[in-house]
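Appendix B, Record 12. Input sequence as logged:
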Amino acid sequence: MRSLFQVPPRPTIEPRRLLVATAATVIAVAVAGLVVAALESPQIAIADASPVYLVAVVVVGSRFGTWAGVATALASFVTYDLLFTEPRLSLRVADPREWLDLILFLFLAVVVGRLSAVGLERAAEATRRASESNALFAMSRILAIAPDLEAAATEIVERLVRETGLERVWIAVEGAGQTRTVADSDPGRPIPSSAFTTSLVRTPGDTPARWVRSHDAKPAGAVSGETRPEILRVRMEADGAPIGSLKATRARASGNPSRETTRLLALAADQLGLAIRRDELRREATAAEIARQGDALKSALLDAVSHDLRTPLASIRAAAGSLSDPDIPLAEGAARSAGAAIDLEAQRLDRLVREVLDLSRIEAGALQPNLEALDLRDVVEPAVDRFRAALGDRQVTIEMPDDLPPVRGDAVLLDTIIGNLVENAGRYAPAPAALSISASAADGRIRLLVDDAGPGVPAGALAGLFDKFYRVERTGAGSRRGLGIGLAVVRGLAEAMGGGVEATASSLGGLRIIVELPVAAAPPVEAVDAASPRGGTAEASSRPTGLAR
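Logged structural output:
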């Protein structure tokens, strides 16, 4: 054990309890005497009915303790000697054999009284220990299931007040040169101060813990002439470092707190110290994990952006160098081809920048969709036509039921989602891999399915497909693998409209992306052309962004 607890001095018997015990002894001996007199009367004629007094000894001893049982035994001995032993009304005994009987009776009465009292004391001690165990279990359970330390500490101080009878209990935590109150059983009043503080001093080994009273000449917040309560203080610590203090006030009383109160306060302080330290370590671990993930994201972003920026910049510089070199004659067709290459790579740079901006807006919660009822076909077909050149020579199938209900969404954001998924299929499922876009409605939701017949994605990579900067490793993927945030943008836009996305294997052999959106209650409106700016977030999201699996 960490420490032992000093046994407090034996408490003084209360006058009222002494009076009640004396009255009970007199009544018990008197009743037993009446029964003995009846049993030894000529009508019944029992020669020796003195064992009846043992009943009185047991009753009084089991109720009031050892001293009461011994007193009853002595009173029974004297009463039986005076009233029922010849010569009567005298302590002198005529027959020596009766002295032996009386002495044996006294010995037996004392032993029985003592055993009854010990049993009573042990039962009372067991009850107190059970109460302590229940209180400690309750405090441990509170610390285990409470949502936070403040809520657990509040319940614990209230429990300590109920179990120990203290007037007030509060927890003071020290840190950064300041002391703050985590919980208080009476939060409506100011923290009390006193010129005297009784602290529990615990030392390693078998040295008993003891209460030590210290004096503070000018306690903080003290007012001259005011009556200040006695303050108990138990230090909380963890890993040898001080955490704070568990403090309490009680009414003025002689002597130190009882063993039960001392144990409860000490063990509660130990558990609270460990809980506070565990909470601090959890916060430090969370902060370290956030910093680690932030560094990892920064490194991934730097690696991806630097790679994807260098490639178009190199193409732009090469084309611009060819146009500006006076030693290289250029025909009109070659010049137009170089200009077209510059324009294409500039569009790619613009698309990369917008990917990052879209993702930052989604994570910051700045995306405010303009939700309305839309005909899904009016959004899908223009997006597919816009990327027809990127799809190459492949079969593209669009299947939309005529009775498909309108979808509730933002036309620009939905156009961006479809455009990104179509471009994604064109990049990673090269022609002649087929592309299929279909939709269905069930349970108030519309499911938009984009299937391709490309190489697909390994099953182990499907779970992370919508994570930021996640890219599936591919053999021979070439230098342009994408930034790895496109599908994260798709998920963010879908969730902003109250929907969601998931990825599975396609029946065509490649990848299937499922976009779920709620059904609109109102009739559909004409979809807004995604190429026209709407201002604000809509304008920033209106351009299709390239995706990388």
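Confidence is low (pLDDT under 50) at residues 1-12, 221-226, 476-480, 528-549.
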